[in-house]
């Protein structure tokens, strides 16, 4: 048994926003050697004043990452990812790379274009607030959250399908296996749960449970507001809850949805079809909404069963509701194990 | 100056669910002589065991209401309202009547069919939880909530329009003026804020800010659930918040939406049009969602400005964000005052 990936080592975080900055705080608090860069000198100065190793020179930081063989976490908005990957290709040719961008297939494409797939493992922590920027960063942001780990490259190397990776683990390059292990260890260190998913499945899923909710909250805010002062006066908790994410910066919402436009348009079509059906039965004689109300209630019970289990725990140690599988990266059959975990929406612990 | 309506007197609550039961608790706690009825003997026994005067005999309760000239609060589901009004017509011919049903025009129609408009003032507290029934009742449920008070009859008597009620207050029957005062006093006693609205405006507004959110939450729950175990695993706080009201009993949601179907279909059409627009720009090249994201954010800021002011108060006495006007029911010009308050989404205090 080899021990590739058994060490996390240094971590280099590019970007100091809500996710990158909160990750920096958590890793530093756990004693990890962590440093990073931000595009703004003022932002770097604020982080340095709090005792963090943050610089506004991307090249300096990437050079240091190379010398320490650090794991590089790309935590910039999607439209800045290509140029950061270019800089990594030039200044950190030996480092493993992951990211925290909210779409995975488009990032994977940029990585492939630069021939970096053997050392890239996509990531996406399902955590955040309506706020953004260093000022919004906090410790513990990722506690109990799913942290998607995209393993497309391993599937392709091992051969996709039900028997994928059976005795063929050796075909996944060691460099990728090592990065996979590093990412999973980093995720565990900040209290999150590594959920293996392919990029396409991830993008379709977040279109359903993250991007679609943003679109419909924006549209609901507009529709409510058209009701004028009386709507403002009568709107109660249910309206506020349903439109909370419309408080997110519009540019952030726009970029997120636009980057995942293809899967989002598909689920938006599904969603609009459901509303059209409800509209038709409500306009009927007699009006009816029983079908949607019952389907929605059943779906809600199923969707909240897992988070419900997490919420109701009275144990001081949070109990995860995601099934867990312990995996040794690179061991025979390990990619097939990841596929089994994905089918369950489960989490992986590496050893 | 007369003092019609300066006394609340006894209150008789028909129906012992979340709203009726919580109102019973609050009024009893404030020393009001309050009694009521529920359709089930078991439910009545539970309330009696807690020290409340609740009976399962509607006729007994309505006869007592008549003898005490109590204000009758109809707190039953809409489909039971007609038969309760019939019983009131027979057993409580002298009592003022209000209700807490979530639509106002259909109730007003039932009242008009029975010739009871002169003693009926429609009501709707904008408060509730996803739970229902006596077990879910609580004290303080209405604190700071808007409590709609429908004043259509006064407008019609005084003559609608900008000069309504100028010097014509006498034309609104004394019986109605007295009930209006009683309802406003009861609302103030439980910490809620009386917001005067016409039935039609109320029904259109709640379609926007209450019933539409229910429809879209049900449809979102269904769409998310179609993502299977991975969607269950990755769904985070934003999904849970956006679908919370899908946890409400389906029959309750169905009845509420169906009773207000006409205004709801209209706002649903508005809403679907917004989604279709977003779908079109997201399917464009390049995809865009900036227009909706910006409109939604602006609308959200406006909608949350008032509730924000309430939430952020550090004063031990909650500060209302609704403009207030003090009105003496029946005084010259008082109906015109109510129209001014309605235009602001404000609240009325009676003296």
TrEMBL record, chains A, B:
Lineage top rank: taxon: Bacteria
Sequence ranges assigned to domain Prephenate/arogenate dehydrogenase in this UniProt record: 9-314
Keyword Oxidoreductase among record annotations: yes
GO molecular function: NAD+ binding; prephenate dehydrogenase (NAD+) activity; prephenate dehydrogenase (NADP+) activity
InterPro entries: 6-PGluconate_DH-like_C_sf, NAD(P)-bd_dom_sf, PDH_C, PDH_N, Preph/Arog_dehydrog, Prephen_DH
Keyword Transport annotated: no
Keywords recorded for this protein, A-Z: Oxidoreductase
A GO BP entry: tyrosine biosynthetic process
Stated family: Belongs to the prephenate/arogenate dehydrogenase family.
Protein name: Prephenate dehydrogenase
Organism this protein belongs to: Corynebacterium glaucum
């Amino acid at each position: 048994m080899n021990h590739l990936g058994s060490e996390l080592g240094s971590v280099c975080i590019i970007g100091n926003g809500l996710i990158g900055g909160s990750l920096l705080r958590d890793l530093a608090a756990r004693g990890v050697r962590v440093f990073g860069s931000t595009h703004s000198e003022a932002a770097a100065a604020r982080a340095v004043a709090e005792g963090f190793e943050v610089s506004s020179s991307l090249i300096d930081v990437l050079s240091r990452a190379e010398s320490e063989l650090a794991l590089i976490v790309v935590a910039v908005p999607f439209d800045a990812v290509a140029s950061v990957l270019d800089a990594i290709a030039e200044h950190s040719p030996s480092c493993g790379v992951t990211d925290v961008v909210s779409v995975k297939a488009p990032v994977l494409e940029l990585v492939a274009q630069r021939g970096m797939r053997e050392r890239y493992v996509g990531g996406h922590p399902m955590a955040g607030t309506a706020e953004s920027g260093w000022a919004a960063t906090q410790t513990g942001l990722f506690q109990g959250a799913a942290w998607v780990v995209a393993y497309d490259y391993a599937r392709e190397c091992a051969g996709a399908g039900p028997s994928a990776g059976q005795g063929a683990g050796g075909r996944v390059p060691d460099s990728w296996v090592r990065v996979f292990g590093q990412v999973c260890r980093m995720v565990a260190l900040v209290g999150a749960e590594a959920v293996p998913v392919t990029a396409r499945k991830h993008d379709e899923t977040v279109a359903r449970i993250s991007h679609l909710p943003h679109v419909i909250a924006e549209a609901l805010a507009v529709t409510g507001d058209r009701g004028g002062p009386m709507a403002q006066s009568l709107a109660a908790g249910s309206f506020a809850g349903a439109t909370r994410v419309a408080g997110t910066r519009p540019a952030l919402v726009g970029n997120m949805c636009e980057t995942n436009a293809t899967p989002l348009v598909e689920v938006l079509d599904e969603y609009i079809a459901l509303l059209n059906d409800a509209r038709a039965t409500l306009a009927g004689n007699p009006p009816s909404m029983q079908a949607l109300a019952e389907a929605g209630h059943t779906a809600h019970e199923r969707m909240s069963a897992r988070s419900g289990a997490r919420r109701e725990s009275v144990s001081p140690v949070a109990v995860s509701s995601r099934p867990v599988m312990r995996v040794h990266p690179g061991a025979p059959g390990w990619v097939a194990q990841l596929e089994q975990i994905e089918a369950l929406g489960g989490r992986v612990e590496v050893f």
